[in-house]
Every structure is written in structure tokens, then in C-alpha cells.
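Appendix B. One record, verbatim.
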Amino acid sequence: MRGRYYITEPRITMPVKYKRVLLKISGEALMGSQAYGIDPLVVEDVAREIKDVLVGGVELAVVIGGGNIYRGVAATATGMARASADYMGMLATVLNALALQNSLERVDVPTRVLSAIEMKELAEPYIRRRAVRHLEKKRVVIFAAGTGNPYFTTDTAAALRAMEIGAQVILKATKVDGVYSADPVKDKNAVWYDELTYMEVLDKGLKVMDSTAISLCMDNNLPIIVFNLKKSGNIKKAISGRKVGTTVRGTK
């Protein structure tokens, strides 16, 4: 089988700590080694990882960023109106959502894409009760187009959707092993954090999620686990309660 992280051992029921989970995947994580766009092998690997955790009865929703295709904030630096740039970024998340849906369905995982911007030929409109019903039927739900509003990031969309569906945790999948004091790719002296509180994230200005998303999680006491998507089995480890990446919560 293709894919670097394909798990070949038999899939067995695993003990899980979290039964309903919101998985946030950065758009950049789907690029692989490419400079931009979607690496089909990476998306296939993510689909297989997701399939592997569903055997424990986990209900999984996904929010994907669009930075691998379009970054609205960067576009504003060239003179584009922020609202227009953000809408273009929302459309980029729909492309990523459809790509992941295709890969999930190819490995026999029933999946629904719910979009905050109506495009009925491609996705269902976002309705909270419908999303919850899909999850109860053990379908993976992919939330696309952010919140449907400009000036809000997909991090904020992930936090908002997690609250709406009653998720027990946000799993933020990135390209690094957790939260660092600086970008570890650019700064070899960057310090890795094992655990953080919401206030520490805000006070230190750490790049976990944007401040609006962190505040939403803090107000609702929703933990965030930041981990490396490239390491096989990390999604399963996080859901089963094993230590992986950096945990952000109210108290250490």
C-alpha cells in the first residue's frame, strides 16, 4: 500500500479517553514536501490514521485550514481587502475538505462535509443538530469554510464547532512535536513545552491557536492537545489518553 504511515497490524478495539473529538489539521500539514497544494499521499495517510481510531467507537469531527492553498492575512499585505482575502481562504478549506473526504471514503469511512458557506452541489450546509446526528451515526464530519465569516481563523472555527458538538478535546495536528517558545525550524534554541495553561499561552504569545480560539477554550474548559501529525499513531495515542505532544488546559 502507498503512504508512509500505513498501519499494517490488525485493527482492534482500543480503550479511549475521549469519545467525541475535534481534530484540527493545518492546511500546511497536507503539503508534505511540496511548496504548496495537496500531497495525495499525505491525505491518504491521514485518512488511514483516522480510520484506525474509529474502531474504539470514537466520534470524530475535523476542521482543516487552507494555508496550503491560500492565506488571507498574507494577501492583505499586498493590498487586498481583508474580507475578500478571508473568503478566498474559506474556499481553500473546502478544497481540502473534499480531498480528505475522498480519501476517507476510499478506505470505507463514511464521511460528510458540512460547509458554513452554502454550496449544496458540493457539501451539506452546516446545521449543528445535523452534524451531531452524523456523529452519532459514526460518520466522520468535516467542517469546511471556517465560521462563514471573515476576520475569524480556522482555529476559531475549530474551537467554536468543538463547543457546538460537545467535543471533549481539540486535537491540533501540526508539523512539529508540540508547542515551542519559538519556531523550532528557525530557532534551534526553541524550548518545547510539555504542558501549558490557557493563560500561559496568552501571556507568552505562543503560537498554539489564535487568542480568540484560546479564550473560547478557556471559557469552556476544553483541553487542547498539540502534536505532530507526521508521526504514525499520534492521533490514536492522544485519543486513548497516552502522552503525546503538548497539552493546554486550565491547570497543570
